[in-house]
Design a protein that fits this description.
Blueprint (H helix, E strand, L loop, with lengths): L2 H15 L12 H10 L5 H14 L3 H5 L3 H8 L5 H19 L7 H5 L6 H11 L9 H9 L8 H11 L5 H14 L19 H7 L1
Amino acid sequence: MKSREKALQLLKFLEQVYPDAHCALNYRSPWELLVATILSAQCTDVRVNQVTVELFRVFPDPASLASAAQERVEEVIRSTGFFRNKAKNLINCAAQVLERHQGEVPQTLKELVALAGVGRKTANVVLGNAFGVPGMVVDTHVKRLARRFAWTRSDHPDQIEKDLCRLLPSSEWTQCAHLLIWHGRACCKAPVPHCSRCVIVALCRRKGVERAH
């Protein structure tokens, strides 16, 4: 069986285990997803969802956030960590969306990563979940599982993204990230995965990867 076929088989098993796998951030628009994803850096989705309730009440759109005092934004998002840098990025990002894109979140990777506080991971989250544009999100869970599955040998998120995009058809990219994240949180944990109760252990090449590295 070819590598792509094995990878797709593994994903199909995960789909059966996590039929409801989806983006865990709460949002009602592409703008809200963009803001929530920026806040999610070094922070749990649960915490972000708690914070954005108040944030979107006080600053419901790019215009209101672009004109906000940084101290006020910091106050609202403090519990997400790195709040000063995140507040600065959110205000600048809002201003850029207004100035460059007439208040609408852009729908290309190139335009998204040009915004303050937006890297490839954040851009791919927005593309895949808000716009239905295939995007391979590489967070800590995806990075860990991709290496355990021997889908990549790299530690660098950009290279892992390239390896996974080569391995899988674009139609699988967005959901693949959701499935790996959900499995990483539930079973394939760091530093020690729960292999004894893992439904895909027969398809996993973790031990072989460990020997190779």
